[in-house]
Fold each of these.
Amino acid sequence: MRRLRFLLATAALLAALPGRAGAAPDPGDLLVTYVARVCDSYDQVMANKARNNVQESLRDLGPDSNYARTETVGAAKEAAGTPLPPCRPLPGWTFSTGRGFTGRSPATRNLSTVSTPLRQDITTTASTPELDAAGNPTGRTLTGAVTVALTASERAAAQVGNLVAQGGTKADPLNGRADTYSFAALRCAQDAVNGDNVEYLSYPSGARHVFCYYYAVTPPSGAGTITVVKQVAPGSNGSGTFRFDGDISYADTNGDGVNDFTLTASSAKPASMDFIRAATGPNDPPWTFQEQIDPDSGWAPPGAPSCTAVDADGGPGRSALTTDSTGRAGVSLVGGEHVTCTYTNRRRPEGRCWRRRRSAAPAPSTSPSPRRRAPTSWSSAPSPPPPRASPSPSPPPPTRWPATTRSPRPSPPPTAPAAGTPPPRTATAPSCPSPPGPPPAPRRAAPGTPGTTCRPTARRTAC
Ligand SMILES: [Ca+2]
Ligand SMILES: [Ca+2]
């Protein structure tokens, strides 16, 4: 009976392999099973290994990755991390492959795409036999999936470590169905690190079959952009690194359990970071962020940021903006709008060390009619959420595990392939273009900067 199941599964697989129906697979074929899923909310989708702002979902994802640092994407881990139900198979979803990748842009629905497409016709079917790493049927079936063999051009790209998969096509990463689906996550083969819409396809040593899992969310929400700008007042000496806590960021750069991002600026060089985020619905809390100033940093607190909203035509926006004197900002984002909030810091006068005021209630200023937001996990809150598995130290090379913002992506395969399979990537092998967007977030600067009378402190957090 078991043998019969095996033979039936093999026959089904052969029929499913494009261009190989009815023919015995070449033992040298390299196979990929593409699987697509759709969920009802972002928090139903397991995150990739790194939780950072490379992630291209419009809201943060749910559980931390259940993969070990160098573990290859597999059906069992995906089923455990993002269960069906509540998520469902997504047949008819097209994937593409190419050489290298290009960062997200408005023209590609703010999703990364392959830079040189090799193939744009890989579409999931109702079901396909599940294969093991050697390419043999396991006897189980995967729904919303398709297995294909690498083409010659794909294989050539894989052999130089340059084969990349994406959800959708280069021209439309949402397959013309943006009115139904939003991107949530993509994980392929040995690359499940950054949560963007591109992943490298490579084969572990001895393997000839790998998986690529894609997750969409329905219904989609509109999207807008929030830009946080950091300015340093003229005449302020040196540069400063400023941390902002809030749910606008998907990263936790200092590992304190509260999401944050950092900006480093000087009077000669302001800094900014863009966040493409979901429009907030009537029942959604606003996006939030708040600058955090170490009392020993030598910088005075910025006070309320200056925020403006602009609509898609360049006119005044309708996004509701709230700010207060503690540097807190809330944005109820309207789809298609661009909100910019600017914080300006200056050095404290010499001889005066600012100390954090804990009791003073912030004096809110609003525009237009703010909605009262539910309490969220501001950094000053005493009870941070459960700690996340931090973007663990890296699979090789470690520099490809950004703790915060953008960096070369996707990640390289961690192990050496067998003969005839793609070679291992090294720390210098990837020549990924720098995607557009904010610069890599710097680590927090040591407090006690020049030009102040505050004592230096050794206090420093691990990033
Ligand atoms: Ca990625
Ligand atoms: Ca943090």
Amino acid sequence: MGIKLYTHVGAYIKATMNTEEYPETKTIGCSSGHGTVPKPHERIDYCPTCGEKLEKSTTVKHRHMSYYDLFKTDEEEKWLDILQWVGGESDDNEHVLLIGNMGTEKFPDCIDLDDDDDEEEVEITPEMATVYVKNFKRTYADIINFITSRVKALEIKFGVVTYYT
Ligand SMILES: [Zn+2]
């Protein structure tokens, strides 16, 4: 969580993330039952008290992938900065929210609110949701296709997203 709260009014992506498996290893202890094994448990193979090999158990856990997990290292340069990841960055989130990061004046996809704290009036007309979503799909067609193939589901919505950065 950052220091400033921003409000995005416009088109955004709500992606439902796949889960991935990861191993979680726990140290059970030595056969002499010396209870206290210093952290991190998983990095210690022998009991610090008696030197006996420690018994361990590994279980397979599941977690949702993050936005960054969608890209291989050599793909990040091309794709990573096109959209801005604005939601679901903490803990284990099923959904990731993404907004545009390339700002187009000709084909707007969000309302340009000033970053200062001045009072402001911006009318939202009934057509804007449709037009802004259409513009968003047009501007970000390539990355939308790319991401869609790697997530469980992807929706393009119009609404308000608040986020810290
Ligand atoms: Zn021991």
